[in-house]
Design a protein that fits this description.
Layout (H helix, E strand, L loop, with lengths): L1 E11 L4 E6 L11 E7 L8 H13 L7 E10 L4 E11 L13 E6 L10 H12 L7 E8 L2 E8 L5
Length: about 160
């Protein structure tokens, strides 16, 4: 069993929108889906997901971020690929009129966070957006385990906290 670690960012603005990447139909990973900015962590980033997401955001948008909040850690078993996936999910608020540069990965677009459920997004993004919309006003970090509930993807959430 392999372990794959990823880091993604939900970059929001004051209009309640999130910046997403529209994957092209030819892309091997999540073709035609709207996805948060991010990707797989490099070997030298495995102990520093924040460093990984700063790199990914710069590569995919041209933005340099310095204020990120780790909000979610999601675990998923991808049995058909003999893999456990760990996704570190960060949030950051962007200033108005920040220049956004689309790159080779796909086109960037703004989507209302409250409407994300209706968009062509992954089940992980859908669950994260739903939970985030219900828990906007706290600084907690949540850990989630993705599973099937009668054939429908769902995530069971818990607060990540020190037991001491």
């Amino acid at each position: 069993m392999r372990l794959r670690q990823m880091a993604v960012a939900f970059l929001t603005n004051r209009n309640g929108e999130v910046l997403l990447l529209q994957k092209p139909s030819t892309h091997a990973f999540l073709p035609e889906k709207l996805v948060p900015i991010g990707g797989h962590m490099e070997p030298d980033e495995l102990n520093d997901p924040e460093r990984a997401i700063i790199r990914e955001v710069k590569e995919e948008t041209g933005l340099m971020l310095d204020k990120l909040q780790l909000k979610y850690i999601v675990h998923r078993l991808k049995a058909d690929e003999n893999e456990i996936r760990v996704q570190y999910v960060f949030f950051a608020n962007l200033k108005d009129n920040v220049p956004i540069i689309s790159g080779e990965e796909g086109e960037l677009c703004w989507v209302r966070m409250k409407n994300l459920q209706k968009e062509n997004v992954s089940e992980t993004s859908r669950a994260i957006a739903s939970h985030y919309n219900e828990h906007l006003e706290n600084e907690l970090i949540y850990t989630g385990t993705m599973k099937s509930d009668n054939g429908k993807a769902t995530i069971t959430w818990s607060v990540l906290e020190d037991w001491l």
